[in-house]
Structures are given as C-alpha cells and as structure tokens.
Amino acid sequence: MSTSKKVILVTGASSGIGAAIAIKFSEEGDKVVLVGRNERKLHNVSQLCKEAGGNTLIIIADLTIDADIKRVINTSIEHFGRLDVLINNAGVPGSESILSDNAMRVFDEIISINLRAAVYVTHLAAPYLIKTKGNVINISSIGSTAICFRINSQYGASKAAIDQFTKCVALELATYGVRVNSVNPGPTKTDFMKRFGYDEEKQQQVWNTLLKATLLNKIIEPSEVADLVLFLASDKANSITGSSFVIDSGFSLKGLIEE
Ligand SMILES: NC(=O)c1ccc[n+]([C@@H]2O[C@H](COP(=O)([O-])OP(=O)(O)OC[C@H]3O[C@@H](n4cnc5c(N)ncnc54)[C@H](OP(=O)(O)O)[C@@H]3O)[C@@H](O)[C@H]2O)c1
C-alpha cells in the first residue's frame, strides 16, 4: 500500500514523537487521527498538521479507559471510513524500586498505558487494517533491552512486552497482509522528562547524562524518529514485518549510565 492520502491513527499525538509523526504524515497529504488527553496541545498539533497539508480529526481520550479506546476506533471509522496505519505511541515514563511500597501501583499505571492500551487499540483496529492491508507501528524504546536507568523495571518490562507483542501479532496478521513493526528510540528531546515530575534543573541534569551516554554525542529529534516511522509505514518497507528498529545515537552500545 502507498501511504499517500491514507488514514493514520496516532495515539499520544499531543506532543513529542507522536506530534512529529502526525506532522510527518500530514506532509504526505494524509488524513491523521490525533489522540491524546490534552485538548489545547492537540489543537496546536492539528494546526501544524493542516499547515503541512494534512486533514485531521482530534479525539480527546484517556487510553487507560476501555470506553475511550472503543470511542477512538468507532469515531475514526465513522469520520474517515477506513484505517491504513496505526501508530501506538502513547506512553509514560517512570519506575519505582521493586522494594518500594509503590512498586505495584506504578507497575499497574505504566502497564495500563504503555502496554494494555496498545494491545486493546490494536485488537479493535485489526479488522479495519485487514481491509486495507495496512500496518501497525509500535513505539517501543531501547529501554526494552538496554539498561537506561538503575531503577527502570516497570517501564523496561512494558517496552520489552511491546517488542514481543509486535512479533507475535506480526506473525498472526501476516496471513492477512498486515505488517507490524516497532521503533525503539533512545533519548529523544520531548516532554517525556517533564513527566518524571523533575524540576528544570534535574531535567537538564538527566539530559546531560543521557547525552554523554550516546556514541554520537547527540540527543535524537522527534522528527528523526518520525522519518523512520514514515519509511516503515510505506510501500518501501513491504518486506519488513515483526522487526524492531533502534534509533538511539549509539546509546545501547555505551552500556549502563552512571546517574
Ligand atoms: N523521549 C524519549 O526519550 C523516548 C525514548 C524511548 C521511547 N519513547 C517512547 O515514545 C513515546 C512517546 O513519548 P514522547 O517522548 O513523545 O513523550 P511525550 O511528549 O510526553 O508524549 C507522550 C504522549 O502520550 C500521551 N499519553 C500519555 N498518557 C496517555 C493516556 N493515558 N491517554 C492518552 N494519551 C496519553 C500524551 O498525551 P496527553 O498528555 O495529551 O494525554 C502524549 O501525547 C512513548 O511511548 C515513550 O515511551 C520516548
């Protein structure tokens, strides 16, 4: 399938990597469903998509709520009539020590958005993707395999699960001509760090540490991740399914970060 004038559903499109992906597909003239909770940010991204040549639909939804996920799929199909590409991007960082009293609360929170939401959206979207012989791209992380922080068990486990989910679903849906891949970014300049609840100084400290841990001495731009996603969604990647693509400035090769 060609990606031009296709319908692309991007979860977590209100900022960062999701916003960059939405804008990138808009530059191709595609129709993009923008999903997230922050209405103001979604409208800002929608404006940028329109200026880039896209046609957008905003759906305000909390993807930890099943009814919201059903509404996302139903509204997208009602509005655009089809679905060609699903980008499961919405996600949050944060982990607690396995010794902490909060360990299980954080595990449930992280899994509910980083893993369960992606699984449920894919489940509901699959019949429509089969009709268009479309594809799915899951935004995972190098945290699925590399050691990024000393305390990262809940987040790392959620992303490792996404990689394996990618492979298993790719196997199932190949019969129907639907491809499923993941993109695994390293440190990418987004609002992600703010979601740790760090103040500006601590955020800057962490970015500096992450920067030093890259081989290329470079934090990744969201648009670079979006370029890779655009390629994987296109006909040029027609022979690619069940694969995970790392984009990390060489971070994985540097090993454990000293925090
Ligand atoms: N930045 C990095 O260094 C990095 C590295 C590896 C992987 N990643 C992955 O990249 C993806 C995007 O992250 P980002 O870096 O672009 O961070 P971001 O700027 O914080 O974006 C996260 C997106 O997820 C959405 N989201 C979070 N919880 C949600 C919920 N319950 N319901 C609906 N939407 C929700 C947010 O939207 P609202 O706030 O509007 O709900 C936002 O659009 C994540 O899966 C993350 O794990 C990021």
Q: Can you give a write-up of this model?
A:
The chain is α/β, with parallel strands linked by helices and 259 residues long. The chain has one domain: NAD(P)-binding Rossmann-like Domain (Rossmann fold, 3-Layer(aba) Sandwich). The chain is built from eight helices and seven strands. It has helices at 16-27, 39-52, 66-80, 103-132, 153-173, 200-212, 222-233, 251-254; strands at residues 7-11, 31-36, 55-60, 85-88, 135-139, 179-185, 244-247. It has a seven-stranded parallel sheet, sandwiched between helices. Helix 4 packs parallel to helix 5. NADP nicotinamide-adenine-dinucleotide phosphate (NAP) binds at residues 12-18, 36-38, 41, 61-64, 89-92, 113, 139, 141, 185, 187-188, 190-192, 195.
Structure summarized in a few sentences:
With 259 residues, the protein is an alpha/beta fold. The protein has eight helices and seven strands.
Order of helices and strands: EHEHEHEHEHEHHEH
Biggest beta-sheet profile = 7 strands, parallel
What is the tally of helical segments?
8
Rg over C-alpha atoms, rounded to the nearest angstrom: 17 Å
**Distance between the ends:** 45 Å
Whole-number mean pLDDT: 94
CATH architecture: 3-Layer(aba) Sandwich
Strands of the widest sheet, in order across it, are 3-2-1-4-5-6-7
Name the CATH superfamily assignment. Answer: NAD(P)-binding Rossmann-like Domain
Bound molecules: NADP nicotinamide-adenine-dinucleotide phosphate
Q: Tell me the number of structural domains.
A: 1
- Relative helix content: 40-55%
Strand content: 5-15%
Low-confidence stretches: none
| Shape label | globular
Keywords: Oxidoreductase
Organism: Parnassius apollo (Apollo butterfly)
GO molecular function, one term: oxidoreductase activity
Protein name: (apollo) hypothetical protein
